[in-house]
Amino acid sequence: MIVDRYSMSFDLRTTNNQQRMSKEKFIKLTSTAVPLSVENIDTDQIIPARFLKATTREGFGENLFRDWRFDSNNRPVKDFVLNDTKFSGKILVGGKNFGCGSSREHAAWAILNNRLLPVVVSDQFLKNIFKWVDENSKTEITIDLRNQIITIGGEQEKFEINAYKKECLMNAYDDIDYLLNLRKEIKEFDEALIVN
């Protein structure tokens, strides 16, 4: 998710869709959101350390926010937002400093996989998002990656994103796909080195 101040990421509640999502292009998303207005959520809260024994990405979604979602008897905690059927959607709106702590990659896998779209927004825009979503859980947010704009309730805000990450998301590339896309340029560069 975000390692800066605020966060939103797409595709929240799906736990077994890594294969399907792996080749989906992300251009624009309009969805309702799940508001998690807690600050300083660290990676051990996102995915507790006891679930880090796996070496693949499968199953982490089931343990996303495990200690907040379930009590000691493994019953859902009713007042935790991910258990509240009023809220759903493909966008998680988190408070300041979301994803702080260690840089464990399992935390990102728990939310989706490495194809998260983290978005940093201003203080006021974040407050407005929480207000609108809390007042009406059917409020939709549009994230336009091509133009780097978030829209909600008639308001818009631009966001920044690394150009490489943007290209990968918009073309459904992983790191290998990105390199394969540059085959021609790599070959030309290689041939130029051999000639010189």
Report the biggest beta sheet as strand number plus sense, adding barrel if it closes: 4 strands, antiparallel
Q: Which secondary-structure class do the elements indicate?
A: alpha+beta
Order of helices and strands: EHEEHHEHHEEEHHH
- Span between N and C termini? 44 Å
Which CATH architecture of the largest domain is right?
Alpha-Beta Barrel
List the helices and strands and how they pair.
Layout: E1 7-10, H1 18-21, E2 28-31, E3 33-36, H2 43-46, H3 66-69, E4 91-94, H4 105-111, H5 123-135, E5 141-144, E6 149-152, E7 155-158, H6 163-171, H7 175-181, H8 183-195
Parallel strand pairs: 3-4
Antiparallel strand pairs: 1-4, 2-5, 5-6, 6-7
Task: Please provide a written account of the structure.
This protein has 196 residues and is α+β, with helices and mostly antiparallel strands. It folds into 2 domains: 7-161, Aconitase, domain 4 (Alpha-Beta Barrel), CATH 3.20.19; 172-196. It is 31% helix and 14% strand. The protein contains 8 helices and 7 strands. The chain has helices at 18-21, 43-46, 66-69, 105-111, 123-135, 163-171, 175-181, 183-195, and strands spanning 7-10, 28-31, 33-36, 91-94, 141-144, 149-152, 155-158. The strands form 2 sheets. It has a 4-stranded antiparallel sheet, covered by helices on one side. It has a 3-stranded mixed sheet with strand order 1-4-3, with helices on one face. A hairpin with a 2-residue loop joins strand 6 and strand 7 (155-158). It is globular and about 70 Å long. Mean pLDDT is 81; it is low at 1-21.
Features:
196 residues; alpha+beta; Aconitase, domain 4; 2 domains; four-stranded antiparallel beta sheet; three-stranded mixed beta sheet; 7 strands; 14% strand; globular; disordered N terminus
